[in-house]
Amino acid sequence: MTYSKVINWLKVLLPLAALALLSTMFLFAQSVAPTSTIPFAEIDLEERINDQQITEPFLAGKTASGYDIRVTADAAKPDVANPGLAFVTTLRARIDIDARQSVNLASGAGQIDSKALTADFMDDVLITSTNGYEMRSAALALNLEAGTAISETEVTGVGPIGRFRAGAMQLTAGDESSQGRFLFTNGVELLYTPQKR
Question: 185-194 long-range CB contacts below 8 Å, 24 or more apart?
């Protein structure tokens, strides 16, 4: 058999062998249901679509009194019925009244209303300030436009004057002064601690 005849036979036999191998692969392959390769169940996909949330949102700006204010959270979930409202976890705010005085607010949960420009702190609110005050309250409402904060629940804390308890508290932003002030009302109790000299 000449060299050219061998080449001609190989041209026919090799494609036939390849075809036989492919048909054997398809013949013995196991059928797989197409849905078994999808990593999420149908109910899981629906939950992910309905449970939309924003991770680490923040809001920063300047109040009407000229204070710098920054609000952050670990996560925010918009309210379906009210698009301007968002429920947040680990809500924090910092109000810089001037270069030396600032107030920090923190709570485990809360809500932000972007239309009313308010942030409601809930779940054990911690209030600290650079002038030595540290307070706790069950709830506090922050007005982002005015830079004022109001707690209508009992406030307990310590400060430069000693330990105190009050039925309500307000962080005010007076027009006559750029300094923020804490105003305690509704039955104030004070355990005065004299300053050591």
Answer: 188/164, 189/164, 189/165, 190/161, 190/162, 190/163, 190/164, 191/162, 191/163, 191/164, 192/161, 192/162, 193/161, 193/162, 193/163
